[in-house]
Write a structure and sequence with these properties.
- Chain C: This is CotJC.
- The complex is a heterotrimer of chains A (110), B (77) and C (189).
- Helix content of chain A is 57%, strand content 0%.
- Chain A is mainly α.
- Chain A has a domain at 40-94.
- The longest helix of chain B is centred in the middle third of the chain and has 7 residues, at 47-53.
- Chain B is elongated, with a radius of gyration of 17 Å.
- Helices cover 9% and strands 10% of the residues of chain B.
- Chain B has a two-stranded antiparallel sheet.
- Chain B has 77 residues and is low in regular secondary structure.
- The two termini of chain B are 18 Å apart.
- With 189 residues, chain C is mostly helical.
- Chain C has a single domain, classed as Ferritin.
- Chain C has helices at residues 19-30, 35-45, 54-79, 84-89, 93-99, 124-148, 152-186.
- Chain C starts with 18 loop residues before the first helix and ends with a helix.
- The mean pLDDT of chain C is 94.
- The chains are: A mainly alpha (110), B little secondary structure (77), C mainly alpha (189).
- Chains in contact: A-B, A-C, B-C.
- The B-C interface holds B 28, 30-32, 35-38, 51-55, 60-64, 66-72, 74 and C 10, 139, 142-143, 146-150, 152, 155-156, 159-164, 166-167, 169-170, 173-174, 177.
Chain lengths: 110, 77, 189
C-alpha cells in the first residue's frame, strides 16, 4: 500500500514522468497471463532446440531455427518488459523508477 | 495411435489371494525407448501446440491419461 | 553464474484447494527422484565427465530448477489458504507444528532430502545410465501423481513435467552414444 502511495505522489509531482505505466498494475491479470504464455511458447521451443542441439551440434536447420527464435524472443521480451516490468535481474533487463524488480507478483503467485 | 505405447501382462492369480484379482496389468513404454538417436528434421508441433505437449516433436510425445476418472473412480490397469 | 527469470517455464494452474496432493507432490520436491535431486545431480556431474556432454548436463540441470519451481508453485497454491484442520487432515499436521505453511525439502513421509540421493561415480557411462534411470523413475512418479488427482488443471502441469522426463532421458541416451562413438574418431587407418 505504501508503495502505491509513494508512486502516485511521484507521478503527481511529475518527478517520475514517463516512469509510471498504468498498464503495469495489470500484472497478473488475464491479458498478462496470455501475453506471458506467448513468450512461454517461444521459450519452450528454444529449450527443446537447445537440448536437441547439445546432441546434434551439426544440424544446420535446427541452428537456424534456434537463432530465428532467439531473435523473436528478444523482441517479445522487450515488448513484454515495457508493459510489465523486468523479466530478469542483474542488468539483463531495464528498469523504470522506482526499481521494479521487487514488485509482485512473483511467478508462483500469479 | 498413442494406445500403442501400452503393454499388458497377466500376473499369476492364486486361490489364496485376499483381494479380487486384477487379471490384466498395464504399463506404458514411452516412444524414446524405440529411438536410439533422434534423426534430424523430424516433423514438429506448432509452437502453440509444443508447449502444451511438453515436446517439440510428435515422435517423442507420450500422453498419459489419469487412471482416476473425473468421478473419482480409480481405473485399474 | 545463473540468471533468474521472473516467469514459470509452463503456466501452472490448480483448481481446488487440496493439501493432500501437496503432500504427495513433496515426492518430486524433496524426494529421491525429485527435481532438486535431478538438478543437483546433473550440475555436479559436470566436473568429472567428458567435455562433449557438459553442455547437456548444464542445460538439463538448469531446466530441472525450472521444474522445481513449478512443483513449489503447485504445493504453494494447494496449501496457501488451507487452514490447520485441512492441513492436519492431509497428513501435514506435523509439518504445520514445525513449519506453519513453509515447506521444506523432504518427501511425503517426512524423510529429509539427503545428499545420498545424488550419485556421481566419476565413470561417464555409469553416471549417464544413472541419469537415464533417474529420468525414468521421475516419469513414473509423475504417472502415479497424475493418477492421484482428478483436478485436470493440476494434471495438465504434471503431464508437461512427465513429458520433459522423456525428453531428458532421450538426450542422456544420445549422450551415451556420443561417448561410445568417440573411438571411431581416434582410429587412424
Amino acid at each position: 500500500m505504501a508503495d502505491n502511495e509513494v508512486r502516485e505522489d511521484l507521478a503527481d509531482s511529475g518527478k517520475a514522468e514517463g516512469t509510471v505505466n498504468p498498464e503495469e498494475r495489470a500484472r497478473g491479470d488475464e491479458i498478462y497471463r496470455r501475453e506471458l504464455m506467448e513468450l512461454q511458447k517461444v521459450d519452450f521451443a528454444l529449450v527443446e532446440l537447445n537440448l536437441y542441439l547439445d546432441t546434434h551440434p551439426a544440424d544446420m536447420q535446427a541452428v537456424q531455427q534456434y537463432n530465428q527464435l532467439a531473435q523473436r524472443r528478444l523482441q517479445m521480451c522487450a515488448a513484454f518488459e515495457l508493459k510489465y516490468g523486468p523479466l530478469m535481474h542483474f542488468g539483463h533487463s531495464y528498469t523504470r523508477y522506482p526499481w521494479q524488480w521487487i514488485e509482485t507478483p512473483w511467478p508462483w503467485q500469479v | 495411435m498413442y494406445d500403442a505405447q501400452w503393454r499388458e501382462w497377466r500376473p499369476y492369480v492364486s486361490h489364496c489371494d485376499p483381494c479380487p484379482p486384477v487379471r490384466v496389468k498395464r504399463y506404458i513404454v514411452p516412444p524414446n525407448q524405440y529411438i536410439p538417436y533422434q534423426p534430424m528434421n523430424l516433423p514438429q508441433f506448432s509452437l502453440d501446440e509444443a508447449l502444451f505437449r511438453g515436446t517439440l516433436w510428435p515422435a517423442l510425445y507420450s500422453p498419459y491419461p489419469s487412471r482416476r476418472s473425473p468421478k473419482g473412480v480409480t481405473v485399474n490397469g | 553464474m545463473w540468471i533468474y527469470e521472473k516467469k514459470l517455464q509452463y503456466p501452472v494452474k490448480v483448481s481446488k484447494c487440496d493439501p493432500r496432493m501437496a503432500r504427495y507432490l513433496l515426492e518430486q520436491y524433496g524426494g529421491a527422484d525429485g527435481e532438486l535431486s535431478a538438478a543437483l545431480r546433473y550440475l555436479n556431474q559436470r566436473y568429472a565427465i567428458p567435455d562433449k556432454v557438459i553442455g547437456l548436463l548444464t542445460d538439463i540441470g538448469t531446466e530441472e530448477f525450472a521444474h522445481l519451481e513449478m512443483i513449489a508453485t503447485m504445493i504453494y497454491k494447494l496449501t496457501k489458504d488451507a487452514n490447520v484442520e485441512q492441513l492436519e487432515a492431509a497428513g501435514l499436521g506435523a509439518n504445520y507444528a514445525g513449519h506453519d505453511h513453509a515447506f521444506i525439502y523432504r518427501d511425503p513421509e517426512g524423510f529429509p532430502w539427503t545428499a545420498a540421493y545424488i550419485q556421481a561415480k566419476g565413470d561417464p557411462i555409469a553416471d549417464l545410465y544413472e541419469d537415464i534411470a533417474a529420468e525414468e523413475k521421475a516419469r513414473a512418479t509423475y504417472q502415479w501423481l497424475i493418477d492421484m488427482t482428478d483436478d485436470v488443471d493440476l494434471q495438465d502441469g504434471l503431464k508437461f513435467l512427465r513429458e520433459r522426463e522423456i525428453i531428458h532421458s532421450m538426450r542422456f541416451k544420445e549422450a551415451v552414444e556420443i561417448l561410445k562413438a568417440d573411438r571411431e574418431h581416434k582410429k587412424v587407418y
